[in-house]
Amino acid sequence: DWTSESFVETTIQGLRTRLGEDKVVMALSGGVDSTVAATLVHRAIGTNLYCIFVDNGLLRKGEFEQVLHSYQDMGLNIKGVDAKAQFYTALAGLEEPEAKRKAIGKAFIEVFDHEAHLIQDVKWLGQGTIYPDVIESVSVKGPSATIKSHHNVGGLPDFMKLKVVEPLNTLFKDEVRAVGRAMGITNSILNRHPFPGPGLGIRILGDITPEKVAILQEVDAIFINGLKKHELYDEVWQAGAMLLPVQSVGVMGDERTYERVVALRAVTSVDGMTADWAHLPYTFLAEVSNEIINRVKGVNRVVYDISSKPPATIEWE
Ligand code: XMP
């Protein structure tokens, strides 16, 4: 019988045999899969697992610091890399979604390759790939696919020449969570909503600037904290905010203002392939909208996305 406890035990033993005294490098994202995978490898080989967590400047407000601290608390050998400037430079002036995705993927590969080179004699690349990633291109847009799509462009980055270790590649998402729970990983990581690799980069429609990121981080934090406060966070599959490339008229005193519009999106879903917009209570939406408009300078209008997937996607880009 499959139990998460027995999976943990046999996987750790298998990893010890396979990896021996070798060093492994792994990029962590703060998400469930990479965290559970890293924890297994860490239990097997300890500090020979080198974890890298990159701040791409497109994370949620406070996320880099919070997640880095959780990883440190878990005892992982983790290095936080502040690469915000490098990502913003790579993105400057890009408006087209796929161009932005490519630039983000490429910057990530450069940063990670550089970091991997700093580790003497590293032999393996650890990855949080899960079974659905293996059987079909459910995660066509996932980080491993980003890496794969760069395969064909010029030479391979050196870390792609490493042997690959993927301890979760036979598991479904709920099994990954169960394994994480069996190892005592905190619910704040296990129950975290999915978050796209390119992060806020695809939730700022059009070109990205640090100022826009700062605005969207504030809006997103108000929305997400509100969901948590009202115990709605676990009721939705994913939630976030989009910064729209339009300004709308507003009034302040007897002046007309033209300020930004943000769209809130929350969906229910099983796997992200189809989704329904979440029927959040009006009182909740009203509270969040007021708080955003009162507290986030430069935003004067909030709209709620009531489209289902298909035909609308979860993200706007
Ligand atoms: P869509 O917008 O296609 O998204 O309905 C389905 C799921 O995939 C996530 N998503 C991405 N994840 N890189 C990622 O790692 C991407 O470029 C990307 N685009 C969308 C999205 O957040 C949702 O969970």
Automatic annotation (TrEMBL):
Keyword check for Iron-sulfur: no
Occurrences of domain GMPS ATP-PPase (ranges): 2-192
Recorded metabolic or biological pathway in which this protein acts: Purine metabolism; GMP biosynthesis; GMP from XMP (L-Gln route): step 1/1
EC numbers, comma separated: 6.3.5.2
Transmembrane region(s): none
Reaction catalyzed: XMP + L-glutamine + ATP + H2O = GMP + L-glutamate + AMP + diphosphate + 2 H(+)
UniProt keyword terms in alphabetical order: ATP-binding, Glutamine amidotransferase, GMP biosynthesis, Ligase, Nucleotide-binding, Purine biosynthesis
Gene Ontology annotations for the cellular component aspect, listed alphabetically: cytosol
GO MF term (any one): ATP binding
Keyword ATP-binding: yes
Coiled coil spans: none
Domain of life, per lineage: Bacteria
Residues annotated as binding ATP: S29, G30, G31, V32, D33, S34, T35
Subunit architecture: Homodimer.
Function comment: Catalyzes the synthesis of GMP from XMP.
Name used for this protein in its record: GMP synthase [glutamine-hydrolyzing]
Organism, scientific name: Arundinibacter roseus
